[in-house]
Amino acid sequence: MKKPIQNHEFQFGEVLNIIQTHQKKAASVVNEQMILTAWAVGEYVSNKLKNKAWGSKVVTELSEYICTKQPDLKGFGKRHIYNMVKFYDEYSSPSFYETVCRYLPKTMAQNQSVLIEDKSNTSKNQIIQQHVEQIQPTEIVQSLIAQLGKILSLTTFTNHLIILTNCKTYEERLFYILYANKERLSTRELRRCIENQTYSSLLSDKKSLSK
After folding, report:
1. Could you give the C-alpha distances from 180 to 3, 20, 127, 175, in angstroms and in order?
2. What pLDDT digit, counting tens, does each position of 53-110 carry?
3. Counting Cβ atoms within 10 Å, is residue 87 exposed (0-12), middle (13-18) or buried (19+)?
């Protein structure tokens, strides 16, 4: 390959940076859609199972139906569908939402004009409640899903399954979501961090978790 003329090399580098930037954005969009798909499918199937409208046999039939109708569509086997149910059930719980609000208050504020901050004689929960009372229920649900979606999209669905399986507290789960994003952890690296108890070693007390 010919070496580029020296005075063009910097400009060629700029073009390469543009390509790489957009490739990263494309990958981010794909991951976000995968997370939202897992959430939506998990929610639908979870509700059917909780209402006892479906049993395990129906989930198997659903998986077979998807495979028949869309044979090129991967990741919707019976086990994968149950993983989506677990993903939805765990992250849609009020306890996880409260944990996120506690440590990422500005991210989870219902709109940009309201920041959840410490105020004298007023707890964060009271501030959240006062603001929530002014919003219609459908708006609350839509906002919750949108804000949680941004946080859950910080890492891959596979990484989420590793976190959900190996981490029991919501604080620890939130930590590894953020840590996996910050350090760009692969699946193998994330497993190693959890096995090495990175959470415990870095955050010996919960006061450090905010940082």
Report:
1. 38, 21, 30, 8
2. 999 999 999 999 999 999 998 899 999 999 999 999 999 999 998 999 888 876 655 4
3. buried
The residue type of 163 is I
C-alpha to C-alpha distance for 14 and 57, rounded to whole angstroms: 55
Secondary structure (DSSP) of 103-132:
H-TTTT-SSTT-----BTTB-HHHHHHHHH
What are 17-47's pLDDT values in tens digits? 888 888 877 877 888 899 999 999 999 999 9
Taking Cα atoms as reference points, which of 39, 38, 58, 34 lies closest to residue 48? 58
Tokens 């410490």 correspond to 118
DSSP-assigned letters across all residues of the chain: -PPPPHHHHHHHHHHHHHHHHHHHHHHHHHHHHHHHHHHHHHHHHHHHHHTTS--HHHHHHHHHHHHHH-TT--S-SHHHHHHHHHHHHHHTSHHHHHHHHHH-TTTT-SSTT-----BTTB-HHHHHHHHHTTS-HHHHHHHHHHHHHHHHTTS-HHHHHHHHHH--SHHHHHHHHHHHHHTT--HHHHHHHHHTTHHHHH-SSGGGG--
Report how far residue 186's alpha carbon sits from residue 180's, in angstroms, rounded to the nearest whole number: 8
